[in-house]
Design brief:
By secondary structure, this protein is an alpha+beta fold. The chain is built from two helices and five strands, in the order E-H-E-E-E-H-E. Bound molecules: iron/sulfur cluster.
């Protein structure tokens, strides 16, 4: 199963929590986060899920791709 990360960048407040808990997240020069990869595997799901749960504005969603 693969998962797709959907992020509402406009809502990101640049707190850095996602990048602190998961290597797949980095802060951009505009001080908003972005996922390095937007399609992730089962193995990569755990920390990305943590990032989504940590996010204070809940702008990260993880969806199943069905594959
Ligand atoms: S945790 Fe949420 S608000 Fe904070 S930097 Fe990451 S995406 Fe932005």
């Amino acid at each position: 199963m693969k998962y797709k990360i959907v992020m509402k960048r406009a809502d990101c407040i640049g707190c850095g929590a996602c990048s602190a808990v998961c290597d797949n997240w980095e802060m951009n020069s505009d001080n908003k986060a972005r996922p390095k990869q937007s399609t992730i595997s089962e193995e990569e799901l755990k920390c990305n899920k943590e990032a989504a749960e940590m996010c204070p504005v809940k702008c990260i969603q993880i969806k199943k791709t069905g594959k």
